[in-house]
Design a protein that fits this description.
single chain, transferase, DegT/StrS_aminotransferase, Aspartate Aminotransferase, domain 2, aminotransferase, dTDP-4-amino-4,6-dideoxy-D-glucose transaminase activity, dTDP-4-amino-4,6-dideoxy-D-glucose transaminase
């Protein structure tokens, strides 16, 4: 039996020899950060790749989310999802904002537009949806709601690198979109993130905010933060752009292999591939339903025994965490679809270097109802 641990996603790395010229450039010109030449080149190439006009690079996605809310001067209440990574809601608390949780669509795991409209109050100033698992939100309906009520829309697009809907980047929707380049993402710079802006004026304000608010050497125009991406991480990003299309293709093949194996397996449901969407296959979530012999948590533990480290993305719900559960909107009765997803979803390993033997190893555990130790 192969005992190599398998994780939900293992970082994709560029060839080490390709990094050497960039390291020599950084060492020779002695520009390490503060918008150096690699940073500038990466912003330009990234915008071109994503099909957007304006990108601001950040040290990570969480700081980018915090800055996006600052840039739009959001106040009061922000409608968001309980079914996400904690950084989504934490960015609101760091800005002194109150999260208002609404339920998700049970099929897409994204914010339910009907629930959004019902949750709007005079204190609501913005909506922060998440493109969960890279599956695009109902951006048209969300924008209509925002327009009617005069709300800002900031998309947490941490999962949505390169995703297109009807041939257009999903990042072009809303007032801002925020990306994650964490090591576990489809596209990574080890740590990193970015904000996609619709116009140069907004990008300029964001760029001030991520650099302490400096407009020039002696002028500070806003209470900014240190959110800059350095030259080394920008170099990693430039290299990763050369390989990301191949990485997504490999992920697609792994996704298809899983689906073939799980077809007709009682109690195991694969999520539908979104229609009219160029997906990035960032995760492979399954629903573990009552028809399966084991509960979701029992399967999670059995896989772990076999060295397969799946993840319960997202469990517990953000609304169940101690700093949020006291909010009126966090009541479980208000969030039935999110609660069900948190109790049923299990994300299986998917990463570009995954072999057929790896896929078979994971699948064998599920197909044998987690009772057979692989030989």
């Amino acid at each position: 039996m192969n005992n190599k641990p398998l994780y939900v996603t293992q970082p994709s790395l560029p060839p080490l020899e390709d990094l050497q010229p960039y390291l020599e450039m950084i060492w020779n010109n002695k520009i390490l950060t503060n918008g150096g030449p690699l940073h500038q080149e990466f912003e330009t190439r990234l915008a071109e790749y994503l099909g957007v006009e304006h990108v601001s690079l950040f040290t990570n996605c969480t700081v980018a989310l915090i800055t996006a809310l600052q840039a739009l001067r959001v106040s009061g209440e922000v409608i968001t999802t309980p079914y996400s990574f904690v950084a989504t809601a934490h960015s609101l608390l760091w800005n002194g904002l109150q999260p208002v949780f609404v339920d998700i669509d049970p099929d897409t795991f994204n914010l339910d537009p009907e629930r959004i409209e019902a949750a709007i109050t005079p204190q609501t100033t913005a909506i922060m949806p998440v493109h969960c698992y890279g599956n695009p939100c109902d951006v048209d309906r969300i924008q209509k709601i925002a327009d009617v009520h005069g709300l800002k829309v900031i998309y947490d697009a941490a999962h949505a690198f390169g995703v297109k809907r009807n041939g257009e980047s999903i990042l072009r929707h809303g007032d801002l979109s925020v990306l994650s380049f964490h090591a576990t993402k489809v596209f990574n710079t080890f740590e990193g993130g970015a904000i996609v802006s619709p116009d140069a004026k907004t990008k300029r304000r964001i760029d001030f905010l991520k650099n302490f608010g400096f407009a020039d050497e002696v002028t500070v125009v806003a209470p900014g933060i240190n959110g800059k991406m350095d030259e080394l991480h920008a170099a990693i990003g430039l290299l990763q752009l050369n390989h990301v299309d191949e990485a997504i293709r490999k992920r697609r093949d792994i996704d298809m292999s899983y689906r073939v194996r799980f077809t007709g397996l009682p109690g195991i449901e694969c999520l539908d591939v979104p229609k009219n969407v160029e997906w990035n296959y960032s995760y492979f979530p399954i629903r573990v339903k009552p028809g399966y012999r084991l509960s979701r948590d029992e399967l999670y533990n059995e896989l772990k025994k076999q060295g397969v480290f799946s993840r319960r993305y997202f469990f517990p719900l953000i609304s169940d965490m101690s700093m949020y559960r006291g909010l009126p909107s966090a009541a479980m009765a208000n969030l039935p679809a999110a609660t069900m997803a948190a109790n049923e979803i299990l994300c299986l390993p998917i990463f570009p270097d995954m072999t057929e033997a790896d896929i078979e190893r994971v699948s064998h555990v599920l197909m044998n109802e987690a009772t057979t130790v692989l030989e």
